[in-house]
């Protein structure tokens, strides 16, 4: 009797193992199919960037160009002024990354470490701006910047970075509240001011959130097409997203060269994510409401 029970248990165990293996195989198949569907547009983009105009419009799609037209990447820089767009985007993105990160951390330090009347109310009001579409502010801001004679300059894009970002302030504040306040008290006993505490005590221990906010700020500036479209008009002031809108040869769009420029524009976010992936993933934990 025990032998029969042992055989039954073994059969059930083998059946369970078989079902488990099948479920794992099915999961991998689904993931491969989904990954292929996600990567397919990028594969087409890379292929299109190496085609000539005839191959680009060929039907059916010619996935492997014959021959590879590497000159599309050279022409994007030499003929269509893409190098200037890259330079503008890089400078603005680095500025946003540094200034927005510092200003957001300073504001978050005040919300996390100081007690003052209406602190919670001001924090809620600050967070409520996240629900306000940026387009709502476009007309009043345009009028202000026009009166200041800042249109077609970088000032309308540079100056708002000085006031931080509501989402970045939220991330910093949540992280700062996890740090023990005994550090601040010990620093005050040693004669540190509030700014010294923020700069020498809090920021050195906030590397994860600093990296997350820095990457978010860089990418937000890098892909921003709305503000350059509204405030910048001259060709030399265009950024990458705005420049791609005007990637034409007279009145005709030059799609192979445009695809080459798009590949270059996408390379930076992909590289940043590859470098800071574990910190970006930790941003979800940082944003946990305390």
UniProtKB/TrEMBL annotation:
Give the GO cellular component terms, alphabetically.
plasma membrane
The record's section on PROSITE patterns has: ABC_TM1 (PS50928)
How does this chain sit within the bilayer? Multi-pass membrane protein
Instruction: Report the principal subcellular site.
Output: membrane
- Sorted UniProt keywords: Cell membrane, Membrane, Sugar transport, Transmembrane, Transmembrane helix, Transport
Q: Where in the cell is it found?
A: Cell membrane
Q: Which GO annotations describe the biological process of this protein?
A: transmembrane transport
Question: ABC transmembrane type-1 domain: which residues?
Answer: 86-276
Kindly list the residue ranges recorded as spanning the membrane: 21-46, 85-109, 121-145, 157-176, 197-222, 254-275
Family to which this protein belongs: Belongs to the binding-protein-dependent transport system permease family.
Spell out the protein name for this chain. Answer: Multiple sugar transport system permease protein/sn-glycerol 3-phosphate transport system permease protein
Query: What species was this sequence derived from?
Result: Thermosporothrix hazakensis
Taxon lineage:
Bacteria, Bacillati, Chloroflexota, Ktedonobacteria, Ktedonobacterales
């Amino acid at each position: 009797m025990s032998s029969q029970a042992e055989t039954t248990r073994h059969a059930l165990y083998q059946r369970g193992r078989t079902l488990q293996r099948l479920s794992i195989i099915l999961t991998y198949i689904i993931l491969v199919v989904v990954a292929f569907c996600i990567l397919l547009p990028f594969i087409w983009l890379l292929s299109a960037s190496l085609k000539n105009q005839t191959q680009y419009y060929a039907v059916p799609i010619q996935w492997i160009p014959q021959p590879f037209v590497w000159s599309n990447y050279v022409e994007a820089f030499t003929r269509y002024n893409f190098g200037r767009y890259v330079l503008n985007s890089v400078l603005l993105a680095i500025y946003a990354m540094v200034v927005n990160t510092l200003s957001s951390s300073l504001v978050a330090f005040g919300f996390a470490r100081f007690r003052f009347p209406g602190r919670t109310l001001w924090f809620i009001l600050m967070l409520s701006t996240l629900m306000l579409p940026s387009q709502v502010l476009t007309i009043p801001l345009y009028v202000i910047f026009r009166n200041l004679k800042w249109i077609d300059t970088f000032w309308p894009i540079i100056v708002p970075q000085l006031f931080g970002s509501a989402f970045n302030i939220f991330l910093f504040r949540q992280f700062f509240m996890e740090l023990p306040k005994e550090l601040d008290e010990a620093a005050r006993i040693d004669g540190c001011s509030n700014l010294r505490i923020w700069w020498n005590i809090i920021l050195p221990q906030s590397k994860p959130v600093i990296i997350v906010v820095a990457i978010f700020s860089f990418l937000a500036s890098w892909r921003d097409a709305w503000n350059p479209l509204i405030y910048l008009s001259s060709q030399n002031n265009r950024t990458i997203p705005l420049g791609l809108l005007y990637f034409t040869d007279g009145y005709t769009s030059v799609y192979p060269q445009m695809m080459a420029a798009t590949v270059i524009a996408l390379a930076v976010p992909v590289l940043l994510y590859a470098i800071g992936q574990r910190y970006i993933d930790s941003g979800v934990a940082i944003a946990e409401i305390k």
